[in-house]
Design brief:
Strand content: 35-45%
Number of strands: 25
CATH topology of the largest domain: Neuraminidase
Radius of gyration: 22 Å
Distance between the termini: 61 Å
Shape: globular
Number of domains: 2
Length: 392
Protein backbone atom coordinates (compact mmCIF):
# COMPACT_ATOMS: atom_id res chain seq x y z
CA UNK A 1 0.00 0.00 0.00
CA UNK A 2 1.43 3.37 -1.01
CA UNK A 3 1.76 6.24 1.46
CA UNK A 4 -0.78 8.23 -0.60
CA UNK A 5 -3.43 5.48 -0.34
CA UNK A 6 -2.64 4.95 3.35
CA UNK A 7 -3.12 8.66 4.04
CA UNK A 8 -6.42 8.65 2.16
CA UNK A 9 -7.65 5.67 4.20
CA UNK A 10 -6.61 7.30 7.48
CA UNK A 11 -8.42 10.49 6.48
CA UNK A 12 -11.51 8.47 5.58
CA UNK A 13 -11.46 6.58 8.91
CA UNK A 14 -11.11 9.81 10.89
CA UNK A 15 -14.00 11.34 8.94
CA UNK A 16 -16.17 8.27 9.60
CA UNK A 17 -15.31 8.44 13.34
CA UNK A 18 -16.29 12.12 13.48
CA UNK A 19 -19.53 11.42 11.61
CA UNK A 20 -20.25 8.68 14.15
CA UNK A 21 -19.76 11.09 17.05
CA UNK A 22 -22.01 13.65 15.42
CA UNK A 23 -24.65 10.97 14.79
CA UNK A 24 -24.50 9.89 18.43
CA UNK A 25 -24.89 13.50 19.52
CA UNK A 26 -27.85 14.01 17.23
CA UNK A 27 -29.43 10.78 18.47
CA UNK A 28 -29.05 12.01 22.05
CA UNK A 29 -30.69 15.32 21.19
CA UNK A 30 -33.55 13.54 19.44
CA UNK A 31 -34.08 11.33 22.47
CA UNK A 32 -34.28 14.37 24.73
CA UNK A 33 -36.67 16.06 22.34
CA UNK A 34 -38.85 12.96 22.15
CA UNK A 35 -39.05 12.73 25.92
CA UNK A 36 -40.06 16.37 26.20
CA UNK A 37 -37.49 16.87 28.97
CA UNK A 38 -34.55 19.26 28.93
CA UNK A 39 -31.90 19.72 31.62
CA UNK A 40 -30.27 23.10 32.28
CA UNK A 41 -27.33 23.44 34.64
CA UNK A 42 -28.14 26.07 37.23
CA UNK A 43 -24.93 26.03 39.28
CA UNK A 44 -21.72 24.10 38.77
CA UNK A 45 -18.32 25.13 40.04
CA UNK A 46 -15.19 23.00 39.98
CA UNK A 47 -14.21 21.98 43.50
CA UNK A 48 -17.55 23.11 44.95
CA UNK A 49 -20.64 21.36 46.21
CA UNK A 50 -24.09 22.63 45.31
CA UNK A 51 -26.95 21.15 47.27
CA UNK A 52 -30.42 21.01 48.80
CA UNK A 53 -32.79 23.44 47.05
CA UNK A 54 -35.66 22.00 49.12
CA UNK A 55 -34.01 23.32 52.27
CA UNK A 56 -34.16 26.87 50.88
CA UNK A 57 -37.21 27.29 48.66
CA UNK A 58 -38.41 28.26 45.21
CA UNK A 59 -40.53 31.25 44.15
CA UNK A 60 -41.90 32.24 40.76
CA UNK A 61 -43.62 35.13 39.02
CA UNK A 62 -44.74 33.93 35.59
CA UNK A 63 -41.46 33.01 33.83
CA UNK A 64 -39.22 34.55 36.48
CA UNK A 65 -38.01 31.86 38.90
CA UNK A 66 -35.85 32.19 42.00
CA UNK A 67 -34.40 29.21 43.89
CA UNK A 68 -32.05 28.97 46.87
CA UNK A 69 -29.32 26.44 47.55
CA UNK A 70 -26.16 25.73 49.55
CA UNK A 71 -22.65 26.09 48.13
CA UNK A 72 -19.74 24.49 49.96
CA UNK A 73 -16.32 22.98 49.35
CA UNK A 74 -16.35 19.57 47.67
CA UNK A 75 -14.74 16.75 49.65
CA UNK A 76 -15.02 13.02 49.09
CA UNK A 77 -16.55 11.68 52.30
CA UNK A 78 -17.45 8.18 51.18
CA UNK A 79 -21.08 7.35 51.82
CA UNK A 80 -21.82 10.75 53.39
CA UNK A 81 -22.55 14.05 51.66
CA UNK A 82 -19.42 15.07 49.73
CA UNK A 83 -19.12 18.49 51.34
CA UNK A 84 -16.33 19.64 53.65
CA UNK A 85 -18.02 20.12 57.01
CA UNK A 86 -15.07 22.11 58.39
CA UNK A 87 -15.19 24.73 55.62
CA UNK A 88 -17.55 27.73 55.25
CA UNK A 89 -20.74 27.43 53.23
CA UNK A 90 -22.69 30.10 51.40
CA UNK A 91 -26.43 30.36 50.90
CA UNK A 92 -26.79 31.39 47.26
CA UNK A 93 -29.72 31.81 44.93
CA UNK A 94 -30.23 31.44 41.19
CA UNK A 95 -32.60 33.45 39.04
CA UNK A 96 -34.10 32.65 35.66
CA UNK A 97 -35.99 35.19 33.57
CA UNK A 98 -36.95 32.74 30.80
CA UNK A 99 -38.79 29.93 32.56
CA UNK A 100 -35.72 27.99 33.69
CA UNK A 101 -33.86 27.85 30.37
CA UNK A 102 -30.94 30.00 31.59
CA UNK A 103 -29.84 31.06 35.07
CA UNK A 104 -27.83 33.75 36.86
CA UNK A 105 -26.24 33.13 40.26
CA UNK A 106 -26.78 35.72 43.00
CA UNK A 107 -24.98 35.98 46.34
CA UNK A 108 -27.20 37.55 49.01
CA UNK A 109 -24.50 36.75 51.61
CA UNK A 110 -22.32 39.46 50.02
CA UNK A 111 -24.99 41.92 51.17
CA UNK A 112 -25.17 40.26 54.62
CA UNK A 113 -28.56 38.76 53.75
CA UNK A 114 -29.74 35.15 54.20
CA UNK A 115 -26.49 34.45 56.04
CA UNK A 116 -25.86 30.80 56.94
CA UNK A 117 -25.97 30.17 60.66
CA UNK A 118 -26.58 27.39 63.16
CA UNK A 119 -25.53 23.79 63.70
CA UNK A 120 -27.18 22.14 60.67
CA UNK A 121 -25.20 23.78 57.89
CA UNK A 122 -23.11 20.83 56.62
CA UNK A 123 -20.26 23.32 57.01
CA UNK A 124 -19.31 26.36 59.04
CA UNK A 125 -20.59 29.90 59.22
CA UNK A 126 -18.81 32.52 57.11
CA UNK A 127 -15.68 33.80 58.87
CA UNK A 128 -15.27 37.43 59.81
CA UNK A 129 -18.97 38.22 59.56
CA UNK A 130 -21.03 39.24 62.57
CA UNK A 131 -24.46 37.64 62.38
CA UNK A 132 -27.31 40.14 62.80
CA UNK A 133 -29.58 39.85 65.80
CA UNK A 134 -32.98 38.33 65.17
CA UNK A 135 -35.90 40.73 65.32
CA UNK A 136 -39.52 40.20 66.29
CA UNK A 137 -41.96 39.62 63.46
CA UNK A 138 -42.90 42.79 61.61
CA UNK A 139 -46.54 43.78 61.93
CA UNK A 140 -47.02 45.15 58.45
CA UNK A 141 -46.41 42.08 56.26
CA UNK A 142 -48.11 42.40 52.87
CA UNK A 143 -48.53 38.81 51.72
CA UNK A 144 -50.37 39.77 48.53
CA UNK A 145 -47.72 42.19 47.30
CA UNK A 146 -47.07 41.16 43.68
CA UNK A 147 -43.32 40.73 44.27
CA UNK A 148 -43.56 39.11 47.71
CA UNK A 149 -41.39 36.20 48.86
CA UNK A 150 -40.77 34.65 52.27
CA UNK A 151 -37.92 32.30 53.20
CA UNK A 152 -37.89 30.24 56.38
CA UNK A 153 -34.71 28.67 57.75
CA UNK A 154 -33.69 26.61 60.76
CA UNK A 155 -30.66 26.71 63.04
CA UNK A 156 -30.88 23.06 64.10
CA UNK A 157 -32.86 20.32 62.37
CA UNK A 158 -33.92 18.77 65.69
CA UNK A 159 -34.62 21.66 68.06
CA UNK A 160 -34.48 24.85 66.01
CA UNK A 161 -34.88 27.71 66.61
CA UNK A 162 -35.98 29.15 63.28
CA UNK A 163 -35.93 32.47 61.50
CA UNK A 164 -37.53 34.00 58.44
CA UNK A 165 -36.86 36.66 55.83
CA UNK A 166 -39.15 38.83 53.70
CA UNK A 167 -38.72 40.34 50.25
CA UNK A 168 -40.91 42.68 48.25
CA UNK A 169 -38.73 42.79 45.12
CA UNK A 170 -38.66 39.11 44.10
CA UNK A 171 -35.73 38.21 46.34
CA UNK A 172 -33.31 40.84 45.14
CA UNK A 173 -33.18 42.17 48.70
CA UNK A 174 -34.25 40.41 51.90
CA UNK A 175 -35.31 41.88 55.24
CA UNK A 176 -34.56 39.92 58.40
CA UNK A 177 -33.75 37.72 60.12
CA UNK A 178 -37.00 37.66 62.09
CA UNK A 179 -37.59 34.99 64.72
CA UNK A 180 -40.27 32.36 64.32
CA UNK A 181 -42.02 32.43 67.72
CA UNK A 182 -41.86 29.20 69.77
CA UNK A 183 -45.58 28.49 69.35
CA UNK A 184 -46.93 26.54 72.34
CA UNK A 185 -43.34 26.20 73.46
CA UNK A 186 -42.44 24.08 70.42
CA UNK A 187 -38.88 23.68 69.18
CA UNK A 188 -39.47 24.58 65.55
CA UNK A 189 -37.34 23.55 62.57
CA UNK A 190 -38.75 25.63 59.72
CA UNK A 191 -38.28 25.31 55.99
CA UNK A 192 -40.12 27.25 53.31
CA UNK A 193 -43.70 26.04 52.71
CA UNK A 194 -46.60 28.48 52.95
CA UNK A 195 -49.98 29.31 51.45
CA UNK A 196 -51.27 32.88 51.38
CA UNK A 197 -54.89 33.36 52.48
CA UNK A 198 -55.11 37.15 52.16
CA UNK A 199 -52.95 40.23 52.26
CA UNK A 200 -52.76 39.95 56.05
CA UNK A 201 -52.91 36.17 56.62
CA UNK A 202 -50.78 33.17 55.71
CA UNK A 203 -50.62 29.47 56.61
CA UNK A 204 -47.24 27.90 57.36
CA UNK A 205 -46.38 24.20 57.25
CA UNK A 206 -43.49 23.55 59.61
CA UNK A 207 -41.81 20.84 61.67
CA UNK A 208 -41.34 20.64 65.43
CA UNK A 209 -39.23 18.42 67.66
CA UNK A 210 -40.94 15.33 69.05
CA UNK A 211 -41.29 14.63 72.75
CA UNK A 212 -37.76 13.16 72.75
CA UNK A 213 -36.37 16.41 71.26
CA UNK A 214 -35.55 14.73 67.94
CA UNK A 215 -36.98 15.66 64.55
CA UNK A 216 -39.70 15.76 63.66
CA UNK A 217 -43.47 16.16 63.65
CA UNK A 218 -45.15 18.43 61.08
CA UNK A 219 -47.77 21.00 62.00
CA UNK A 220 -49.78 23.92 60.66
CA UNK A 221 -49.30 27.48 61.91
CA UNK A 222 -51.00 30.73 60.97
CA UNK A 223 -49.75 34.28 60.68
CA UNK A 224 -52.56 36.81 60.89
CA UNK A 225 -53.06 40.53 61.33
CA UNK A 226 -50.09 41.18 59.00
CA UNK A 227 -47.66 39.47 61.36
CA UNK A 228 -49.03 40.72 64.67
CA UNK A 229 -50.48 37.32 65.56
CA UNK A 230 -48.83 33.89 65.26
CA UNK A 231 -50.79 30.76 66.21
CA UNK A 232 -50.35 27.01 66.30
CA UNK A 233 -53.25 25.52 64.31
CA UNK A 234 -52.93 21.72 64.18
CA UNK A 235 -50.65 18.72 64.09
CA UNK A 236 -50.39 16.98 60.74
CA UNK A 237 -50.63 13.34 61.77
CA UNK A 238 -49.60 11.50 64.92
CA UNK A 239 -46.09 11.67 66.31
CA UNK A 240 -44.03 9.28 64.14
CA UNK A 241 -41.69 6.58 65.39
CA UNK A 242 -39.01 7.99 63.10
CA UNK A 243 -39.56 11.42 61.60
CA UNK A 244 -41.95 13.28 59.31
CA UNK A 245 -40.51 16.52 57.96
CA UNK A 246 -40.47 19.02 55.09
CA UNK A 247 -44.14 19.41 54.06
CA UNK A 248 -45.01 20.52 50.54
CA UNK A 249 -48.60 21.75 50.35
CA UNK A 250 -51.18 22.92 47.80
CA UNK A 251 -54.64 24.39 48.09
CA UNK A 252 -57.24 22.29 46.25
CA UNK A 253 -60.35 24.25 47.23
CA UNK A 254 -61.50 27.15 49.43
CA UNK A 255 -61.04 25.01 52.54
CA UNK A 256 -59.33 21.91 51.15
CA UNK A 257 -55.57 21.46 51.51
CA UNK A 258 -53.35 18.55 50.54
CA UNK A 259 -49.81 18.08 51.81
CA UNK A 260 -47.01 15.62 51.13
CA UNK A 261 -44.32 14.95 53.71
CA UNK A 262 -40.96 13.20 53.84
CA UNK A 263 -41.37 10.26 56.22
CA UNK A 264 -38.95 7.78 57.70
CA UNK A 265 -39.41 5.04 60.27
CA UNK A 266 -38.00 1.57 60.95
CA UNK A 267 -39.47 0.00 57.84
CA UNK A 268 -40.07 2.82 55.36
CA UNK A 269 -38.41 5.84 53.80
CA UNK A 270 -41.05 7.38 51.59
CA UNK A 271 -43.58 10.18 51.19
CA UNK A 272 -46.82 10.40 53.16
CA UNK A 273 -49.86 12.52 52.40
CA UNK A 274 -52.58 14.22 54.44
CA UNK A 275 -55.74 16.10 53.56
CA UNK A 276 -57.57 18.90 55.36
CA UNK A 277 -61.12 19.95 54.48
CA UNK A 278 -61.29 22.71 57.10
CA UNK A 279 -58.41 24.96 56.02
CA UNK A 280 -55.81 23.20 58.14
CA UNK A 281 -57.73 22.86 61.42
CA UNK A 282 -57.50 19.07 61.17
CA UNK A 283 -55.86 16.51 58.91
CA UNK A 284 -56.59 12.98 57.75
CA UNK A 285 -53.95 10.62 56.41
CA UNK A 286 -54.31 9.62 52.75
CA UNK A 287 -52.73 6.98 50.53
CA UNK A 288 -48.92 7.20 50.52
CA UNK A 289 -47.91 8.64 47.12
CA UNK A 290 -44.40 7.11 47.31
CA UNK A 291 -43.41 4.19 49.52
CA UNK A 292 -39.68 4.12 48.77
CA UNK A 293 -37.25 6.98 48.13
CA UNK A 294 -34.12 4.98 48.89
CA UNK A 295 -32.18 6.73 51.64
CA UNK A 296 -34.94 9.36 51.88
CA UNK A 297 -35.90 12.54 50.01
CA UNK A 298 -38.45 15.31 50.42
CA UNK A 299 -41.37 15.86 48.04
CA UNK A 300 -42.23 18.89 45.97
CA UNK A 301 -45.91 19.24 45.13
CA UNK A 302 -47.48 21.61 42.58
CA UNK A 303 -50.91 22.11 41.06
CA UNK A 304 -51.08 22.23 37.27
CA UNK A 305 -53.30 24.60 35.24
CA UNK A 306 -55.83 21.76 34.70
CA UNK A 307 -56.00 21.24 38.52
CA UNK A 308 -54.08 17.95 38.36
CA UNK A 309 -51.27 17.48 40.87
CA UNK A 310 -47.62 16.81 40.06
CA UNK A 311 -45.30 15.39 42.70
CA UNK A 312 -41.53 15.38 42.19
CA UNK A 313 -38.90 13.70 44.35
CA UNK A 314 -35.46 12.11 44.30
CA UNK A 315 -34.70 8.43 44.85
CA UNK A 316 -31.45 7.71 46.67
CA UNK A 317 -31.29 4.12 45.52
CA UNK A 318 -29.86 2.68 42.31
CA UNK A 319 -30.69 3.73 39.71
CA UNK A 320 -30.26 7.13 41.38
CA UNK A 321 -32.99 9.24 39.85
CA UNK A 322 -35.39 12.17 39.83
CA UNK A 323 -39.03 11.18 39.40
CA UNK A 324 -42.57 12.46 39.12
CA UNK A 325 -46.03 11.12 39.83
CA UNK A 326 -49.33 12.58 38.65
CA UNK A 327 -52.79 12.72 40.20
CA UNK A 328 -55.99 13.68 38.39
CA UNK A 329 -58.24 13.38 41.46
CA UNK A 330 -56.67 15.71 44.00
CA UNK A 331 -54.27 13.15 45.46
CA UNK A 332 -56.78 10.35 46.06
CA UNK A 333 -54.77 8.18 43.67
CA UNK A 334 -51.42 8.48 41.96
CA UNK A 335 -49.90 7.35 38.68
CA UNK A 336 -46.98 5.01 38.39
CA UNK A 337 -43.53 6.50 38.70
CA UNK A 338 -42.30 8.58 35.75
CA UNK A 339 -38.55 9.04 35.44
CA UNK A 340 -37.26 12.53 34.72
CA UNK A 341 -33.70 11.21 34.72
CA UNK A 342 -31.93 8.15 36.13
CA UNK A 343 -28.25 8.75 35.37
CA UNK A 344 -27.19 9.70 38.89
CA UNK A 345 -23.83 8.44 40.14
CA UNK A 346 -24.54 8.40 43.89
CA UNK A 347 -27.19 8.74 46.58
CA UNK A 348 -26.27 12.43 46.83
CA UNK A 349 -29.16 13.61 44.63
CA UNK A 350 -32.59 15.16 44.90
CA UNK A 351 -34.09 17.66 47.35
CA UNK A 352 -36.20 19.14 44.53
CA UNK A 353 -38.33 22.24 44.35
CA UNK A 354 -40.76 22.56 41.44
CA UNK A 355 -42.80 25.36 39.97
CA UNK A 356 -45.21 25.63 37.01
CA UNK A 357 -44.62 27.96 34.08
CA UNK A 358 -47.44 29.89 32.40
CA UNK A 359 -47.28 27.43 29.48
CA UNK A 360 -47.98 24.51 31.84
CA UNK A 361 -44.48 23.02 31.77
CA UNK A 362 -42.92 22.14 35.12
CA UNK A 363 -39.47 23.34 36.19
CA UNK A 364 -37.94 21.00 38.76
CA UNK A 365 -34.72 22.21 40.41
CA UNK A 366 -32.59 19.76 42.42
CA UNK A 367 -29.01 18.79 43.14
CA UNK A 368 -27.34 15.97 41.29
CA UNK A 369 -24.16 14.05 40.58
CA UNK A 370 -23.37 12.11 37.44
CA UNK A 371 -20.32 10.47 35.89
CA UNK A 372 -20.09 12.76 32.87
CA UNK A 373 -20.03 15.95 34.96
CA UNK A 374 -17.53 14.70 37.53
CA UNK A 375 -17.55 14.20 41.29
CA UNK A 376 -18.91 17.65 42.16
CA UNK A 377 -22.55 17.94 43.15
CA UNK A 378 -24.35 20.61 41.16
CA UNK A 379 -27.74 22.28 40.80
CA UNK A 380 -29.81 21.49 37.72
CA UNK A 381 -33.25 22.39 36.40
CA UNK A 382 -35.27 19.84 34.46
CA UNK A 383 -38.04 21.30 32.33
CA UNK A 384 -40.76 18.82 31.45
CA UNK A 385 -44.32 18.64 30.22
CA UNK A 386 -46.87 16.67 32.24
CA UNK A 387 -48.49 15.83 28.90
CA UNK A 388 -45.43 13.73 28.01
CA UNK A 389 -46.32 11.32 30.82
CA UNK A 390 -49.25 8.99 30.45
CA UNK A 391 -51.90 8.87 33.15
CA UNK A 392 -50.87 5.33 34.12
Amino acid sequence: MTDHIRNQLETLLVAMWLIGLISLGNAHQTLNAASGITHAKVYFEKGRYGGWPATHGIWSWDNEILVGFTSGVYEDRGSRHHIATDKPVRHLQARSLDGGETWTIEDPNAKHQLLPEGQSLHGTELPGITLPEWQDSPTNIRFKHPDFAMALKLNHNHIGPSRFYLSYDRGRAWDGPFRVPPLNGLKIAARTDYLINSNSECLLFLTAAKANHREGRPFTAKISESGTQWDFVSWIGDEPRGFSIMPSTVRIGPKELYTTIRHQDDSQKGIRAFRSIDNGLSWKREQDPVTNTGAGNPPSLVMLPNKNLALTYGVREAPFRICAKMSSDGGKSWSSEHVIRDDGSSTDVGYPRSTVRPDGRVVTVYYFSDASTGPERYIVASIWSPKSFSSN
